[in-house]
Each structure stands twice: as C-alpha cells, then as structure tokens.
C-alpha cells in the first residue's frame, strides 16, 4: 500500500509555494512587457532574452501551481507596481527580482521546506534558484553591454545570427545590414558562450 503524501496545507511551505507561483506569474508578464520595450528600442537580442526568461518563469509558475493542493490560500504578495522603463532600467529591476525573490527567496524557501519535512519541494526550490541565478547573470551581462554600448561588439570574433533569416556571420560585430534579408545589425543575436 502506498504511503500517503504529507499535506502542505497550513504550512509555511504552502505559503512559500503560493508566493513563488504568484511571483513567477508576475515575472512572466513583466518580462513579456520588457521584451516589447527592448524591441521598441531596437535591442532585439535583449527582447529574445526577456522572452526566453518569461517562458522559463511561466514554467516555474506551473511547477509551483501543481504543488498546491486546492482550495483558497490567502497570500500577501509584494508587487512591482512600477512603470515600464527603458531597457537598462528594466534589466536593473529584473536583476533585483531574480536576486531577491528568485535566488535568495527560493534558497530560504528550500530551507523551510526541508525543516517542515518536504525534501522534494526543497529540491525543486533549489533547482529553480539555480535557474534564477542564470537569469540574473544573463541580465547582468546585458545591462553591462547596454551601458558600455557593446551589445553588438566583442573584442574577439564570435558568431552572430540574424534573428530574421537565420544567416550566421563571424566577426567582432555583425554586418551593418544582413546580406540575407537586408535587416539592420540590431536584428543580430550573439552566439558567444556567455549568452
């Protein structure tokens, strides 16, 4: 006979899961908004990064949602009721969210889950904290590039891919105009290992 799974109802772990679900859902929406802003500023590769991260956050939300056991759980969720800023500002806000609600918050939630006897939930929190650290690192790199004007410049040759037609070019910078589709360099995504 299978052992009955321990309920999370009424635990701090349940509260942490609800907060994680709601925070991830907010992040999905926020990063989708930020992607559109990056596109408006012609930072198409950063738009791609925001969309990829939004998709990750959507899937994190699903993981946490599936851990819940139904019913209604009251939760006070800090909400960034901010304004969509320029891409540099949006990257800074994203870095703060990833560092605090993501990495630090999930490490603390994992500790609580472990203390309350939910080792599998703790493992999920720790694994997702690692994903959030990757998001933080990537946002940090792109903010530095935006601030230094090096989104499309490297000190060594790398591969660049046109986001429109898929043409791949190797050099320190992408071509000013894509030879495949005539779109400007802003449509190129770096393919170096840091991205």
Automatic annotation (TrEMBL):
PANTHER family: RUBRERYTHRIN-RELATED
The keyword Nuclease is annotated on this UniProt entry: no
PROSITE patterns: FERRITIN_LIKE, RUBREDOXIN_LIKE
Listed cofactors: Fe(3+)
Transmembrane segments: none
Domain Ferritin-like diiron: 7-150
Protein name per the record: Rubrerythrin family protein
Domain Rubredoxin-like: 157-191
InterPro entries: Ferritin-like (IPR012347), Ferritin-like_diiron (IPR009040), Ferritin-like_SF (IPR009078), Rr_diiron-bd_dom (IPR003251), Rubredoxin-like_dom (IPR024934), Rubrerythrin (IPR052364), RUBY_RBDX (IPR048574)
GO molecular function: iron ion binding; oxidoreductase activity
Keyword Protease annotated: no
CDD domains assigned: rubredoxin_SM, Rubrerythrin
Keyword annotations of the record: Electron transport, Iron, Metal-binding, Transport
Source species of the chain: Paramuribaculum intestinale
